[in-house]
Amino acid sequence: MNHDLQVLFDPAQIATRVRQMGAEIQGWYDPGEAIMVVGVLKGSFVFMADLVRALDGPINCEFLGVSSYVGTHSSGAVQITQDLRADIADKHVLIVEDIVDTGLTLDYLRRTLMARNPASLRVVALLDKPSRRKIEVEVDLVGFTIEDLFVVGFGLDLDQRYRNLPYVAVLQQG
Q1: Nearest to 105 by CA among 131, 143, 133, 142
Q2: 70 CB-near residues (< 8 Å, 6+ apart)
Q3: What is the CATH classification number for the domain harbouring 37?
Q4: Which of 6, 46, 158, 172 is deepest in the core (most CB within 10 A)?
Q5: Contact between 47 and 154 (Cβ < 8 Å)
Q6: What is the mean pLDDT of the chain?
Q7: Whether this model's pTM surpasses 0.70
Q8: Strands (DSSP E) along the chain, which ranges?
C-alpha cells in the first residue's frame, strides 16, 4: 500500500519547540537536581534524545515499553512490553511521550508509576490529540496540539515504517 506524506512540522519547527520545552522543563527543577527521564518506547526515543540534550544538570535516562496500537488504530488495551530497570522511588520522574491520543496509555502509566512512589512525576509529549480522549489525563507540557490525524516521523511509525523521518507528517492512505 502506498502512503502520501504531508509535512506537518518540519525539522526546524521541531528543533525550536524542543529547545523551548527544555527551557520550560528546566524551570521545574532546582539547579543540579537529578531528573529521571523515562522514554515511552518505541515512539518517544527520537524526541527524548533531542529533549535531554536541551536539558542541563544530571539526567538519568530510562525506558519503558508500552503498546496500545494495532496498525493505525489504538486498541485501547495497554500492554507493558518492557518495564523500567531502575527504582523510581524518591526520584523526580519525567515521562516523555511521543503522542497523547485516547489518554488510556498515559493514565495507565501515571497510575503504575505513582504506585512506585516517585518524588515527583511530570509528563511531556511531543504531540497531543485532545479530540481523541477517552479519559481525561494531565499532560504537563505539549510540543504541538494536533487534530485527529494519523502522523508519522520523528519516532512515530506505521507498522515500524517512517520512524526515521526528520519531520512529523500526516499519513494519507491512497
Answers
A1: 133
A2: none
A3: 3.40.50.2020
A4: 46
A5: yes
A6: 92
A7: yes
A8: 3-9, 35-41, 59-70, 73-82, 92-100, 120-128, 141-145, 151-152, 168-173
Name which of 62-66, 116-120, 121-125, 166-170 the model is least confident about: 62-66
For the chain, how many structural domains are there in total? 1
> Which positions are catalytic?
101
The secondary structure of residue 16, as a DSSP letter, is: H
4 in any annotated domain: no
Give per-residue pLDDT as tens, 69-113: 555 565 567 878 899 999 999 999 999 999 999 999 999 999 999
In whole angstroms, what separates CA 173 from the centre of its chain? 24
Instruction: Tell me the one-letter amino acid at 53.
Output: R
Cell of 47: 524526541
Place of cell 481525561: 136
The span from the CA of 39 to the CA of 167, in Å, is 19
Distance CA 69, CA 77 (A): 8
